[in-house]
Amino acid sequence: MSAPSQAAAPQPVAEETPLLEVTDLAVEFRTAEGTVRAVDGLSYRVEAGRTLAIVGESGSGKSVSSLAVMGLLPPTARVTRGSARLAGTDLLALRPRQHRAYCGERVAMVFQDALAALNPVHTVGYQLTEALRARRGLSRADARARAIELLDLVKVPNARARVKEYPHQFSGGMRQRVMIASALAMDPEVLIADEPTTALDVTVQAQVLQLLAEIQAERRMGLVLITHDLGVVAGVADDVTVMYAGRAVEQAPVGPLYAAPAHPYTRALLRSIPSTAGADRGTRRRLPVIPGRPPSPAARPSGCPFHPRCDVAQDLCRTEVPPLTGPAPARLSACHFAADVLANRPPETGGTHE
After folding, report:
1. Domain boundary among 160, 185, 210
2. Segment Disordered: which positions (predicted)?
3. For the sheet containing 20-31, what is the strand order?
4. Which of the listed residues 155, 185, 215 is the one where a domain comes to its end?
5. At a CB cut-off of 8 Å and minimum separation 6, what does 97 contact?
6. Domain presence at residue 12
């Protein structure tokens, strides 16, 4: 394998000023075993009319990073460094009341468990109207009319009647639409959707993702889609950040990333996506899996955190943390041998493979 490049390439320059720019974000949790770092130096940017997918396994830090941006971290967690700038204002430097004012109006979030997020003892109409009355000062009648408009926007059938119903009377997909309507109530500039299709069947997943894409395009919002499934983002995302063990390991536009991943972890994720190729010929193949497990935040390995599971790891990978650098234009990869991975070159026999 060729020698790693030590020259750090600059971040790709975007044509537009980002709506949201997260820089060097780090989040720590206090646990009985001590302090653990859940997010370590994460940076990304979200532009108007574009969708950023943040992809990673459970425990990668993707959801924690969004909770930090929204000011919703639990008491045991804290941001130790970094910034999250919305149109130039650092959300992480605001007082809690100011932060709440921004997050909910200018930045909103759709949570993965719609049933838990909705209050079971109030109608969905009540929950939408109370938020509108509190935030916008609307009359009860105007707030109800706006709630019906929002349910229409997210394609809830017969919205005028269903606004009187309770969350348990909605299917999982329809509850998720109600959550999207709630998030859109204040006309946010950026929408963060945290695993919005969890526990939904494949058909409903596609419908919810298509709905988000349509609303995002119509409003030119910035959309952050957080998911563990790289297979769902191909048709909706513009850019992808792949996270592993609290760090971004690859960042790229969606097309180049799918065509030629520049990090072994991304490549392994793509290989593990089920495919129907060869099904018409009766061909069967075993679905590839990534060996091992993601490391615990309390006991991460030295060097590259992915090296114990990596099929091209060398001695260097066990001792030095690879920086997030650019092996190609508009590509960033945290791999010592990113250029080789991008070119799909096998490791040289002279190194020591894991």
Report:
1. 185
2. 279-303
3. 34-46, 20-31, 77-86, 89-90
4. 185
5. none
6. no
- In the DSSP assignment, the letter for residue 168 is G
Report which DSSP code applies to 17.
-
Say if 21 falls within a structural domain.
no
Going residue by residue through the chain (354 aa), what tens digit of pLDDT does each one get?
Answer: 544 444 444 444 445 689 999 999 999 999 988 899 999 999 999 999 999 999 999 999 999 999 999 999 999 999 999 999 998 899 999 998 899 888 878 999 998 888 888 999 999 999 999 989 988 899 999 999 999 999 999 999 999 999 999 999 999 999 999 999 999 999 999 999 999 988 788 888 889 999 999 999 999 999 999 999 888 888 899 999 999 999 999 999 999 999 999 999 999 999 888 776 655 566 667 778 888 899 988 889 999 999 999 999 999 999 999 999 987 778 999 999 998 898 887 655 344 444
* CB 269, CB 263: distance < 8 Å: no
3-state secondary structure 308-340: HHCCCCCHHHHHCCCCCEEEECCEEECCCCHHH
pTM to 2 decimals?
0.88
How many domains in the chain? 2
Beta pairing, strands 247-253 & 239-244: antiparallel
Q: Of 188, 45, 46, 223, which is closest to residue 106 (Cα–Cα)?
A: 188
Place of tokens 């990673």: 56
Q: Are strands 51-55 and 222-227 parallel, antiparallel or unpaired?
A: parallel
DSSP conformation letters of 270-297: HHTS---TTGGGT---PPP---S-PPPT
Q: Which domain holds residue 312?
A: 261-275+290-342
Question: CA 259, CA 254: separation in Å to the nearest integer?
Answer: 9
Where do the DSSP E strands lie in the chain?
20-31, 34-46, 51-55, 77-86, 89-90, 107-110, 190-194, 222-227, 239-244, 247-253, 325-328, 331-333
Side chain identity, residue 31:
T
Q: Per the domain annotation, does 158 fall within a domain?
A: yes
